[in-house]
Amino acid sequence: MRTVVLLRDRALRHEEAGRMDKAIRVYRRLSAHAARSLPAGDPLLLDCRDRLGRGYLRAGRLAEAARVFERTISETPADPAARLGLAAVRAAQGRGEEAADLAEEAFAELETPGLGAMLVRVEAHRAAGDLDRALNLAELALSEQRARAGETDSGTWTARAALARVRLARKEAGRAARELAPVWSSWQRDRRLRTHPDALSCGNDLAEIYLALGRDADADALLRRVLSLAGRRYSVGHPEIVRARESLSRISPQ
Q1: Which of 26, 124, 174, 248 could be 100's S-S partner, Cβ–Cβ 3.0 to 4.6 Å?
Q2: In the predicted structure, residue 98 carries a pLDDT above the cut 70
Q3: Residue 156, class by beta-carbon neighbours within 10 Å (0-12 exposed, 13-18 middle, 19+ buried)?
Q4: 30 pLDDT exceeds 90?
Q5: Which residue ranges form the domains of the chain, and what is each CATH number?
Q6: Where would I find the beta strands (DSSP E) of 87-166?
């Protein structure tokens, strides 16, 4: 147990510092150690596997993330967290209908679903093209998060970003910009949070909205800001850095 806690804490420190490759290596050690020392279905073992899968997902290593969640599902079919994790992977892979089915099945079995589970449902239905359902879920998630934590909570900002992504998918770029611009400002006002992965994702999302509105100069400045912030903390292969560079190349081809 002590080894599991030490490895988990080490992996979290790497992840919080943006060292995703190192975090994943430690999560792999953690998962292997837990598998040797804990019985199948043990909550701590499931948590270790979930952390590994989500580490792969955050690093953009989708095939590896899928394998981790699929293994957990095959060994412990009753674990809803693994199905939620796989739903997030399938949404990122563009397999929206499968993502939506997995998310709804898992969500129905959670005793106390949190914001993360709600937002997986939002992204799954967005990926499936069911934008009315995604919009309803995003608005509900935001309403509940605001009531629970208030307007200045980072979870509220993340929920607003999810709502903005749905509005952009619905061709409501103006409303999406009005939703997301204050969120980006909120992330940037807190020096501790301005390089958080969700903050960088927010900047990339807002730049995408500006591009949809034809505001190329605003998008260019924002993407360069994202790259400047990310470069202080993350490796060049971090998904948000790759995404920002790809978006910037559409404005300023090299």
Answers
A1: 124
A2: yes
A3: buried
A4: no
A5: 172-254 (1.25.40.10)
A6: none
